[in-house]
Structure formats: structure tokens, C-alpha cells
Write a structure and sequence with these properties.
Largest sheet: 3 strands, antiparallel
Structural class: mainly alpha
Strand content: under 5%
Shape: globular
CATH superfamily of the largest domain: GntR ligand-binding domain-like
Number of domains: 2
Radius of gyration: 18 Å
Distance between the termini: 39 Å
Helix content: over 70%
CATH class of the largest domain: Mainly Alpha
CATH architecture of the largest domain: Up-down Bundle
Order of helices and strands: HEHHEEHHHHHH
Strand order of the largest sheet: 1-3-2
CATH topology of the largest domain: Four Helix Bundle (Hemerythrin (Met), subunit A)
């Protein structure tokens, strides 16, 4: 097994879980995965063990592996962690950001706003691309927090939160786009209090939308 083969397989399986190609609770049979991912059983077992350590896969004793299940309670927990981390990181990033950071924030928002405008107009768009730009904008906002550890933790939590968005959360249209615009303006004005307020409302709104739309589909535990 080469490191590059392991990493490529890991990234593919992880992406398929995060973006909903492998569904919550789905059994991950090594022999079947071997055909789909072109990797050996030992490689796949190591990949799944790593994903289990990240909370994206669960082990089933001697029965093998499965994609981690979802629940309303877990979604609320992930949202709470996002708020805790991003509120703190926003303040640090706003204080440390320079003109280069401002240009990065503007560019990240431009990509997101363009695809949001297309979706608002009714155009069919790639949801994976939409959520990649969404993640890119939120991570750029906090990227000057000067903590590689915090950024890593944020990505892990955001990816778990993203699973719910890809499976359940439909686009909130003008409301979400306006919140992103407000975050951009607050960043450029270094208005920390406004940005934090908008962010909290933005995350809460997404969670409420998901739970209201899919209440019968998400277990309560």
C-alpha cells in the first residue's frame, strides 16, 4: 500500500460520506467498496478505521462498518459547536485580517453569491459545488484567527454539519444570501458584533429550516 493510494481512497470515501453519496446508516462492505474505489481490502479497512476515529463511520463489532447515523440531537450539537468555534474565530480573524485577507473574503463571497443567485433564479445547480463555496466563504472569514488547530477542528465539525445540509437542508434562498452579504459587509467594516450576531442567526436559521422540513425523517435521539 502506498501513502498516495491510501490518501486518495480516504479522500474519496470521506467526500462521498460528507456529500451524501454514502447515506447515514449504510453498511460499508469491504468487498463491495473494493470494486467501487479500486483499493484493496486492507487499504479500505485502514481508511474506514480512520473515518471512524473522525466520527463519520461507526464500527459494528464483528459485522464491519457503517456510515455514522444522524439525529436531530446530533445536528443541534454540531450547530452549537460551530457557533462556539466560529464566534471566537471571527473576532480573532477580524482583528488580524489585512487587505490581502479582505480580498480573499471578497473573492470567496463572489463565488458563493454567484451560485446562490443562479439557485434563486431557479437554475439547476450542483449542490456539491454550492456547499464547497459555502464552506470556503465561512472558512475564509476565520482564516486569520492564527490557530491551525482551531481551523482543523472547525473543518471537521463543518463537514459533519454539512452532511445534514446535503441530505436534508434545502437552500433558504434570499434569506441565506442576505446573511452572507451581511457577513461580508461586517468583515470589511471589522464590525465584530454584527458579524457574530448574523452568524448565530444564520446557523440557527439553517438548523430550524432543516428540522422543520424533515422532522419526520430525522430521528430525535
Amino acid at each position: 500500500m502506498t501513502v498516495s493510494l491510501f490518501q486518495a481512497t480516504y479522500l474519496r470515501v470521506r467526500s462521498d460520506i460528507v456529500f451524501g453519496q454514502l447515506l447515514p446508516g449504510q453498511r460499508l462492505r469491504l468487498e463491495e467498496l473494493k470494486e467501487g474505489y479500486g483499493a484493496s481490502v486492507p487499504t479500505l479497512r485502514e481508511v474506514l478505521n480512520r473515518l471512524a476515529s473522525e466520527g463519520l463511520v461507526v464500527t459494528e463489532n464483528e459485522r464491519g462498518f457503517a456510515v455514522a447515523p444522524i439525529s436531530a440531537g446530533n445536528l443541534l450539537e454540531l450547530a452549537a459547536l460551530r457557533k462556539l468555534i466560529e464566534v471566537h474565530a471571527l473576532e480573532q480573524s477580524f482583528r488580524n485580517g489585512d487587505v490581502v485577507w479582505e480580498s480573499e473574503v471578497v473573492a470567496a463571497h463572489h463565488k458563493l453569491s454567484r451560485i446562490e443567485a443562479r439557485m434563486i433564479s431557479g437554475e439547476a445547480c450542483d449542490r456539491t459545488e454550492w456547499k464547497r463555496y459555502d464552506f470556503g466563504f465561512h472558512q475564509t472569514l476565520i482564516c486569520r484567527c492564527q490557530s491551525a488547530e482551531l481551523m482543523s477542528v472547525h473543518k471537521g465539525i463543518f463537514d459533519k454539519y454539512l452532511r445534514y445540509q446535503m441530505i436534508f437542508l434545502t437552500f433558504r434562498g434570499d434569506v441565506a444570501a442576505k446573511e452572507h452579504q451581511d457577513l461580508l459587509e461586517a468583515a470589511l467594516a471589522r464590525d465584530i458584533e454584527k458579524a457574530q450576531s448574523v452568524l448565530l442567526h444564520h446557523i440557527d436559521g439553517g438548523v430550524e429550516h432543516a428540522l422543520a422540513a424533515q422532522r419526520s425523517s430525522i430521528p430525535s435521539g
